[in-house]
Structure formats: C-alpha cells, structure tokens
Predict the structure of Multidrug export protein EmrB.
Amino acid sequence: MAKFTADKIIVIFTVVSAALLQLIDTSIVNVSLTQMMGNLGATFEEIGWVITGYAVSNVIMITLSGWMSARFGRKYYFAASIVLFTIASVLCGTSTSVWELVVFRVIQGIGGGGLLSTAQAILIETFPKEELGLANAIYGVGVIVGPAIGPTLGGYITDNMSWQWIFFINVPFGILATILTMMYVKEPVMKPKSVKMDWLAFGLLIAAIGSLQIVLEKGQSEDWFETRYITVLAVIAAFTGMFFVYRELTKKDPMVNLRLFNNRSFATGTLFNFVLGFGLYGTTLVIPIFCQGLLGFTALQTGWIMLPGSLATAVMMPIVGVLLKRKLFHPAIYAGLGLLLFFVFSYSMGMLNTQIDHYDFFWPLIIRGFAMGLIFIPLTTISLADLEGTEIPQGTALSNMVRQLGGSIGIALITTYISIDTTKHYSYLSENITVTDPATQERVKVLTNSFMSKGFDIQSATANAYGLISRSIFGQATFLTYKDLFIDLGLFFLLLIPLLIMFRNKKKKVIKEEEIAEWTIE
C-alpha cells in the first residue's frame, strides 16, 4: 500500500493553498465593501457589481475548467490560473475607480474558476484510491474553512489596514503556489486534446450562466420579475441553457461533458453537492448578517464567532477520511449522520432568544462544523469514485459548478425568505400595538420626554418616539424570521436523509485479497 511521501504532502499543500486563494477571497471582500464605497466614491448598486462580476466569471470558468485542462494540460492550466488570479489581485488593489475594480474582479474570477476543480482533479490523479479519502479530507478542510476564516481576516485587515490589502495579501501565496505547482505537480499521462473551441457553445454558456448568476445575485434587490431586465435575463438564461445542453449532448467532443450524468454515482453525488452548496454558502451568509445586522457585532467579532466551527470541520474531515479508508461503514452512513447533525445545529439556532452573546453560538457552530465534515468527504468520494482519465477533470468541474450554483440559488431563496417572512411578522406584531393601547401610549410618552430633554420640539420628539418603536418592532420581526429560517433549514436537511437510500453498495470482483468492494450506486 502506498504511503504519503514528502512529494505528495507538498502536492496537498499546493492545491489547498491555491484553493484557499479563491475561497477566502470570495468571502473576505464582503466585509470591506463599505470602505471601498467611501474610498472609490461608489454607490451601493455600483459596489454590488464587485461581487457579481467575480461570481459570474468564476462560475463560467469552473464549468469550462475540465475542457481547459484537457486542452492545455492540467498542470499548466492550473499554474496559469494561479498566475492570472495573482496578477488580477494586484490590479484590484491598485484600482482607482469602481468600474476599474469590477473589470479586474472579472479577470480575477476567470483565474479563480480554474483553481478549485483542477485542484481536486490533481489530488485524484496523485493519490491511489485507498488514500484518496484522506487526501480529499485534507483538501476539504480548506474548502470548508476558507469561507469561514475570510470574514475574520477581512475584518482584521479592514480595521487595521486598508481595503487594498485584502487583494495584496494574495500575492505571496500566489507566487509560492505557482512555484510549487511547477516543481511538484505532475502532468497526467494523457496528452492534451487538440480540440477546437466550440465558440457557439462557449457563447451559449456565457449567456446562460452569466444571466442566471445576475438574476440570482440581483433578483431580491430588484423585486425579482417585477423588474424588466431581471425578467429578460431569466428568459435568456432559460433558452440559452436549453440550447447549450442540446448542443453539448449532440457533440462528439463537447466542452462540458454532460454525459457524465449517465453515471448514477456521479449524478446522485452531484445532486447532494448542490444541496451541500445550499447549506454551506447559505448559512455562511446568514450567520454574519444575523450577528452584525441584528445583534450589532463587528465583522471581526463575527469572524471569531465562526472560527470554532471551522476548526471543528478541520478536525472532523481527516477523521472521516481515515474511516472511509478503513471501509467500516458505507459512506452514506456518515453523510446521513452529518445531515442529522446539521438539523441539530439549525434547531439549536432556532431556539435562541434575544438575550444572547458570543458564547451562545459556540456549540451550535461546533455541531455545524462536524456536520459539514461528515457530509462533504463521503459525497465527494462517492460521486467521483467511478470516473477515469479525462472524466476526472470534467467531473470535478461539473461537481464544483453545481455546488456553486446551489450556493447562489440557496442565497437567493434565503434572502427572499427573509424579506417575505420579516414583512409577515412585522404586520402581525404591528397589529397588536395600537395608539389607543395604554402600554403603547405610556411608551410613547416616555420616549417623547426623553427626546424633548435632548432639545427636540414636541412634534419632532413624538415622531422620533414612534420611529423608535417601529424600528424596535422591525428588529423583533427580523429576529423571529431568523428563528423560522433556521428551523426550516434544519427540517429541509432532515428530510434529505431518506434520499441517501439511493446509495447502495455493489460488490465488485475481488482483485486483491486485501481489497474490499468499492461503494457504487445501484
């Protein structure tokens, strides 16, 4: 049995470092948007394109990364992606206008899109199957922990330096990852394919994924289909998406190999990857907003709150990797336990009250960290286990793209849920507070006197008193909404457990005496 050599350890370090560049950058930018707005003189709408532009180009390149690896060689495409990402980071940090920054973020997204799935493909090529679970576990630590430590790092940089440094910090790590890639990552035996670019398919992909991503990013703020351009983009996404699927299924050498979904292991695992993206990115978004927007925590405090959960994931993933290597239980058993723990996390968050502090988040987020560790590795192992040769980069690209879209759709649904549910709770609470109610009158009187003592006239003081009461009601409505959201998310993940029955084990012909049948899907 092969063992982890020094070269293999360096390969793991290299691909994790490159993946972290993309993952941390995705979340680190969010906490610096306010400072960017002031420094660049941008509006809230304009600064939003800093996030959207990156997301659109990133998802498109994730989808194409399998084809790019096959066309130009995995090692060289991976190295080129790191270099492009690093150069774009420097350009982002030197931007003097918001639209200049948006352009460089789009370029950065193109580089970042080649990192995650290509890194995973490199691991699969480097490690034999008996070691792949542990290697994927170590890689998975970076995938899960990256988005969580981003807000902490971003908060520290924003508080102590300037927003430019959230981009400049990528440079030394990008240079190191490039050098290690060229020295230690080996090119697979397969020769790069001499396949011409299918420009029609490429255009359809850009139109479909780009339009869909903008709809998901901007839909809630633009009132969804009440806005003309959102409706137009949704129609474009639907039609170009259908034409793209048709073209790829009828081409001999497609850019994106959708035929991989004929493999039930890959198809089912990718479906669960979509759900994982929903839970991972959705809750990673919700918790900081909950802590900062409702409870008044700073970005740095919120980052520290989320850090223990990330460390729990870092501990759990290697353990799961070892357990998978020993084949004590079917991988779906671990995933089911993870889904159950995610329900426990969500239910615990849903039971919190307004009298909470930093410590009340500790155990729920620890449980969430364990859950993510138990879900991620088994699903990744199952979905990619049957792929061979050029199918590996194509499969990892599709899997990562689906998880990314799952996150985008999850975030869009969650933000819409929050808006609708908050309005519902606000209306209900407001109905129980009337101007004729003695308790309300007394509260208004106390607040009015307080404002008048600070120099306000009677009319302004009364208006401020009612405004303060309205904001208090809105805060309570928002808190109730988050409680509902966490409970519903937990129930959603709990209901997914029976679907794991789709994963069954099929014993294959024994090749070696010590080998045990691999897990596949019937």
